[in-house]
Amino acid sequence: xxxxxxxxxxxxxxxxxxxxxxxxxxxxxxxxxxxxxxxxxxxxxxxxxxxxxxxxxxxxxxxxxxxxxxxxxxxxxxxxxxxxxxxxxxxxxxxxxxxxxxxxxxxxxxxxxxxxxxxxxxxxxxxxxxxxxxxxxxxxxxxxxxxxxxxxxxxxxxxxxxxxxxxxxxxxxxxxxxxxxxxxxxxxxxxxxxxxxxxxxxxxxxxxxxxxxxxxxxxxxxxxxxxxxxxxxxxxxxxxxxxxxxxxxxxxxxxxxxxxxxxxxxxxxxxxxxxxxxxxxxxxxxxxxxxxxxxxxxxxxxxxxxxxxxxxxxxxxxxxxxxxxxxxxxxxxxxxxxxxxxxxxxxxxxxxxxxxxxxxxxxxxxxxxxxxxxxxxxxxxxxxxxxxxxxxxxxxxxxxxxxxx
Length: 405
What we know:
With 405 residues, this protein is of the alpha/beta class. The protein is built from 14 helices and 12 strands. The chain is 44% helix and 15% strand. Helix 2 (62-78) runs parallel beside helix 3 (95-101), helix 8 (224-237) crosses helix 14 and helix 12 packs across helix 13.
């Protein structure tokens, strides 16, 4: 795996794995920002974002995740990526299937570990997820049992116990960048040697009833993710095999050196490239989900104008796309920004609203109001009001658009 620079030679994949609470997402996101800021064409994805399909065809949805990893890997590669960072829990017997998704790349599997006390503290204090402690301990034991039995899984291993994020990131970088680029990974891709990501990415839209796609969009802090997730759960309860895609989470790509101003505000990606990649990934993932039986796809994220809306419609074809544009008044947006700034639940990559100062929160609200006006002027989607309403009622209005009510 190459170190700094443009990433000459084969593309590379770094997968950070380990039980919940060891810091995979935080470290992965920090590495993405660091390498991107230095000009390395880098992409990032959390593996769970690629497997949101219910009911699941297998217990952990790992086959769907592997297929979607294959298609986003190819999409990122076509857009200029040279290094892909993946974070997520993975069982030992799934690793070879995932490695096949990035065939031809130089793979490094990095296991992150932490003491049980540290994991417990992070899951309770930082993520408010005490119910995950037992699962985290059990998964750590599973990985350790494989190591003890002589079935080494990790190419490199980094302990995060009692260490800051910066310290862990520095250790992972040092291990990755000092690793000889031609050193093979311990994990051998599944399948024949002549198989590659194209085989995994070959799922096509099945015949018969076409996939229906519902996109929930709107300005910042209007509640897109919350409403879209409620829509997703509702269509499941109606008996549909349903899939969910967070557009931001499948579009983290930086292919050039960011400007000084972009680095100052923490923006390491190219907005145009990211939008194109998100549309391409959404379309490719839609075909994978449809091939696994999905009949409804719910998308959440920003769609900034009619050209981008048309790009999603084209990428998702032959699926029929309905776009709901959420609207909220300034008071509602201000309340939601204030709530997000102190929220203690799981922190998604790219969420920059936590811990904001009063001045920064005010700027977010003003930006949201400008975005809302631009969306109205551009005629993006069908308006759905959210002020003073429960999310269940808002979701009903979104679904009514799909049904043509």
